[in-house]
Amino acid sequence: MSNMVTIGISDMKVVKEGDSLVTYALGSCVGICLYDPVTKIGGLGHIMLPNYPQNNPKENPHRFADTCIPAMLDEMAKMGALRQRIVAKIAGGAKMFEVSGDSAFGNIGARNVEAVKNSLMSFHIPIKAEDTGLNYGRTVFFYTENGSMVVKSFANGVKTY
User: Fold this and answer.
1) Which pLDDT tens digit goes with each residue over 15-56?
2) Number of other residues whose CB lies within 10 A of the CB of residue 111
3) Closest of 34, 32, 24 to residue 50, by C-alpha
4) What is the mean pLDDT of residues 56-63?
5) Which of 86, 98, 120, 158 qualifies as a FRET site for 130, CA 20 to 30 Å off?
6) Domains along the chain with CATH numbers
7) Catalytic residue from among 15, 26, 29, 140
8) 29 included as an active-site residue
9) Is residue 76 helix, strand or coil?
10) Which of 126, 157, 161, 151 is nearest to 30 (CA)?
11) Do 5 and 46 touch, CB atoms closer than 8 A?
12) Rounded CA gap, 34 and 90, in Å?
């Protein structure tokens, strides 16, 4: 029987085959699905920002692309996944608001996607599917039995990757 595990904002969980993961309301945030197709171990992270602030060591590391991804990889390895087999699927990173004169804030979704891609590249993890950008929110379901990512949105319906 499949257990659906909910991932909150700035959260990350790793599960074994048979369990599924979901995260809601990805706007500028990015959902990162990592999967080992042999062990069927999967993880889902919901990051809010690109980089961990080194001047604030009490921050939640799962909030940031550059610290959530290594934490997820470590959890997956503890459960038996091999890093060289892990693949990624990502969704989110939308530009939810038009902000005049403040492109850094208004473009946080694109910065999040870039940080996720850079972090995955640094670990040599290929991105097998991507549903990012544009201007609408998404909900992501991730299924460990086959590694599929289902993205639901009001603007774009349901897509399976």
Assistant:
1) 999 999 999 999 999 999 999 999 999 999 999 999 999 888
2) 18
3) 32
4) 90
5) 98
6) 3-160 (3.30.1330.200)
7) 29
8) yes
9) helix
10) 151
11) no
12) 9
